[in-house]
Structure formats: structure tokens, C-alpha cells
UniProtKB/TrEMBL annotation:
Source species: Alteribacillus iranensis
Subunit structure of this chain's protein: Homodimer.
Family: Belongs to the SLC41A transporter family.
Entry GO CC: plasma membrane
NCBIfam families: mgtE
Name by which UniProt lists this protein: Magnesium transporter MgtE
Amino acid sequence: MVKLNEQTREEYMNQVMAAAMKGNIDEFRFLFLELHPADQTDVFLHLEENERKQVYEFLSPEEFAEIFEGMEIEEQLEIVSELNGHYAAEMFNNMYADDVADFFNELPADQSAEILQAMNKEEAEDVKELLTYEEGTAGSIMTKEFISIKMSDTVGDVIQQLRREGPGAETIYYLYVVNDIGGLVGVTSIRDLITSSDDEVIENIMSTQIVSVHVTTDQEEVALLIQKYDFFAAPVVTEHNILVGIVTVDDVLDVLEEEADEDIGEITASRGSTDMTLTSAQAALRRAPWIILLMFFGLFTAEVIGRFEETLQTVVLLAAFIPMIMGSAGNTGTQSLAVSVRALATGSLEKRGLWKTIVREFSTGLLIGLMSGAVITLLLTIFYGDSLLGLIVGLSIVFSLGTASVVGSTVPLAINKLKLDPAIASGPFITTLNDIVSLLIYFTVATTFLQYL
């Protein structure tokens, strides 16, 4: 198997397609199938439609299945429209059930039903089962292709079973031991088999300390569990402990990427619009509601400034530092927001404790405020020759940053208590809220010292 780099990709692709266009199937298959599956997918996606049709003739549905699995959903939707019904059904028969279910979730119900009708009954039933689970749960991302064995089996029996069933399983590192009704009772590994004699009974080498997840467990919890225990896969069971599937580490990587994208979208108030395949109009429609809402929040900022109009008229120079104080508070609050959302996502908040987290963020914000306040007080004293003005701005920075840290850390925690996604407390929302709070602090401090200016 060869691995392409950027220097050889175009040259190799030209060789592959030259063989295809000449109708030299043997040369094409030799060159193309020598590639790593990821490179096969890359090469295929660079082809024009007429060239892709040539590939369908030269590759079996089983061979094309691995290429199809490596594509993004949007690419799969485009490619499947080019395939005839029989070829597509055979391709889906040779894909892992969870990958097929993920794709079918993006299809209209009538279209997926038509494909399921054309698939082999056993494979279709597995996909139908996965489609019944709520999206975002362990059941919806698990695969049905796993190896289960019995306690009474010998190591030699299991090795023979692996030779028969292993090629169709998504992973064979873990082997799950079940009883007569399919209940999960133990787990063993390839390492255990290799280091045991052929006549050793599985019951003697299996572990009964099993870490499993329920079919309804949130996918992010599953990902964190696999990350915590460094598993390659985790078994999925029903409420009666019946083993129904496994979640593999490659699925977990997809989940973590999906959750990260979702959190970024929430924190930046751009959820649903980060996909670069969206048109400008679609992205604008998804972003606009947050921006309009935040615009109304901005009216409160204007109201605060209006309330302290007399203070501003007395010392007009105070207005020059409003953007700096608002910006510093907003940035500090966003940092604390990121820390809280991350702590909730990784479970570290539970280990540290709610109040310790809040106190830690408040202390951090206060220390940053003290450092920033000292610097700005010194600078204003030097450049404006007014130490009192420097003190007013410096104290405002200290109190604003300390308060902003508390706001940034507590709002997502409060939202989490309401069983909502803490990332909803987006960066722009926290920034706007801290703008209002920091202005109130600034003008309160300034008004207090106004008689001395």
C-alpha cells in the first residue's frame, strides 16, 4: 500500500486515470487499490463525473464501500445520486451499519426506505435498529459488527471464530462474553488469547469488571468514558444488560469533533452556520437572530451611558476609556466562559467543585485586573499628568475584570443546571452582559470621585 504526498499526488492520479481512460482495468486496479483508503477517497473526489463513472465499472461495490465511508456527508449525497440502485444497495451491504445509519439520517425517509428494501435483510435490520435510537445517543452511533463469545468456549475455538467472523467486524481487539440470552458477562482481548493456551477456557481469562454504556447514554458521555479508560471500544447494553453493539474509538473522534464544532458555534453565536458549504444567505439567516437579539441588549449599554450623562459632561475625557474598559471586561468574561464550558465538557468541574471553580475564576480575574489596573494607572498618570484619572480607570478595570470573570463562569454553570447546553451562553452574549456591568462599575467609580476631578 502506498501513501501519497502532495508532490506525487497529481502525478499518481494522472497515472491512475490514464489507465482508466484507456480501459486498462488491471493497471487501474493495481495502481488504485495500492493506495491507502484515505488516498483512494482523495483521488476519487478529484475526478470529474465521467471519470467517476469509469471507476464504478472497475471497482466492485465492496471495494467502493470503503471509499464511500471516507467521504463527508455532503460528498456522499452527491455521489450516491450517480450510482444505480443495485450497485448502491450492494455497497451499503458492505459498509458498517453505523456509517449507513448516519448517511440515511440525511436522506428523505422514502429514499432510505427504498434502499433498505434493496439491501440484504440482515444488514437492513441492523441499520433499521440504529435508526430507531435518538440522535446523539450511544445507540445511534454504535456499530453492530462486533465479536461475541461464550464463557465455555476455549481459546482455540475463539481463534477459529475470529478467522471466520473477524473480517466483517469493525474491531476485534475486544471480545465480549455473553450468556445464553445475550447478556454481557465479561470481556477479554486479543492479547489475552495470544498469551493463553488453546485449551484454556474463556471463563478463566475473561474480566468481569466491565465498563459499559446504556443505549440512551449521551454520545458525549460515551466519548469521555472511552477517553478516560483509553478504550478502543465500549460495549452498549440495554436496561436488561443485553449486549446490542459497541462504540469504537473512531466514532468517538467524530463525536468529539461534532461536539467541538457545536460548542464553537454556540460560543461565537454562529451555531449551524459554521459549515462552509452553506450559502451566504443561509449563513446570514442562521446568524442574524443572535445578532439582532444582542443589538437589543446593546440598547441597555446606551441607557447606562445616558444615565451618567452628567458625569460625562463634567469630565469628557472619561468617554475616551469606555471602549478599553468594555473590551477588557468582555475578553476576560469570554475567557472564563471558555474555562467553564470546557470544565463541564470534560467533567473536571465535578472533581474540583462548583464553588472552587467560581472562586478560582474570580481570583484569576481580580489578579488580571490588579495587574492591568496598575499598568493603566501608571500610564495615565505619565501621559495625562492626572493620577486621580488614572486611579478611577485603574479601579474600574480591577472591579470590572473581577466581576466579568464571575459572570463568564457562572452563567454557563447556571444554564447547565437547567439541563441546557452551557455553550448557549455564547461569547457575544457574555461580552454584551459584561459591557453593561463594566460601564455601571466605571461610572459609579467615576461619579464617586467626581468632586475631586
